[in-house]
Specification:
This protein is of the alpha+beta class. About 35% of the residues lie in helices and about 25% in strands. The protein is built from 7 helices and 13 strands. Helix 4 packs across helix 6.
């Protein structure tokens, strides 16, 4: 399958053209971007993630996250020889999720090029989730009971929505789930990030993997709250027999006593 053509979000196009950021090499050359994480050196190449504040052309400033990838490809059953750039996979997943209403970080720019040395570069720019926190930054057990239950419900139902739309994240850690409290709605807004392994699931094992990885890495969350989360995920007033089977499977995986 061919690499997607250059993408620029229509709302950002005038600003990016004005700042001459409508091609990938320009993002690599930006001097003011700040590195936000250790470089990823897997898959025979490298990827760096940067943050940059930028005006969207209307006077509003936003945090943008810039992923710059060089010669980094992951092999799969579909691409066993040459592999596929993980940023290409992530952009495809973001685009597919947005079309089906799955809440994810919004892409602003995507493009790729090969430099004079033959090195392959990909750039994916996403709008920062200002006002959101990742689940690993929240002390869930310390939340008041009503707010904690609302958080479990909103995350559970949003993950259910993603799965019902046919997508499995396949790398779902608390740091990949961002939430923001909306006082007027008395609910949490939930978004997913880092979709480089996300695709249409081919079996329930991928859905179970999402549930297991999220539960395993959620710090200090009690078994009772894990069961509440499952109830909300399954959209049942109480755990059905299938839900109880799933709960027992998770308990074995998580070594609950």
């Amino acid at each position: 399958m061919r690499v997607p053509r250059k993408y620029i979000d229509p709302d950002w196009r005038p600003a990016l053209i004005r700042w001459r950021l409508d091609y990938a090499a320009a993002w690599l050359a930006l001097p003011d971007k700040a590195l936000v994480d250790e470089p990823n050196l897997r898959y025979g190449g490298s990827m760096h993630v940067y943050r940059l504040q930028m005006d969207d052309g209307t006077g509003l400033r936003h945090n943008l996250y810039i992923k710059c990838q060089c010669n980094q490809r992951r092999r799969s059953l579909r691409h066993p020889v040459r592999g596929r750039a993980t940023l290409e996979t992530e952009f495809r997943a973001l685009s597919a999720c947005l079309k089906k209403g799955v809440p994810v970080a919004r892409p602003v720019f995507f493009d790729h090029f090969v430099d004079d040395n033959g090195d392959e570069h990909y750039v994916l720019v996403s709008l920062g989730l200002d006002g959101f926190q990742s689940l690993d930054q929240i002390d869930i057990p310390a939340l008041p009971l009503a707010r904690r239950r609302r958080l479990l419900e909103d995350v559970g139902m949003t993950l259910r929505f993603m799965h019902l739309r046919g997508f499995a994240h396949r790398n779902l850690y608390p740091k990949h789930v961002f939430v923001a409290w909306r006082p007027t709605l008395e609910r949490f807004d939930v978004r997913f990030i880092d979709l480089e392994k996300t695709h249409l699931f081919t079996g329930f094992r991928h859905l179970f993997r999402d549930l297991e990885s999220l539960a395993r890495r959620s710090k200090n969350v009690s078994r009772r709250d894990q069961l509440r989360f499952l109830k909300y995920y399954l959209d049942t007033g109480h755990l059905s027999e299938d839900g109880k089977i799933l709960a027992r499977w998770l308990a074995r995986k998580l070594h609950y006593r």
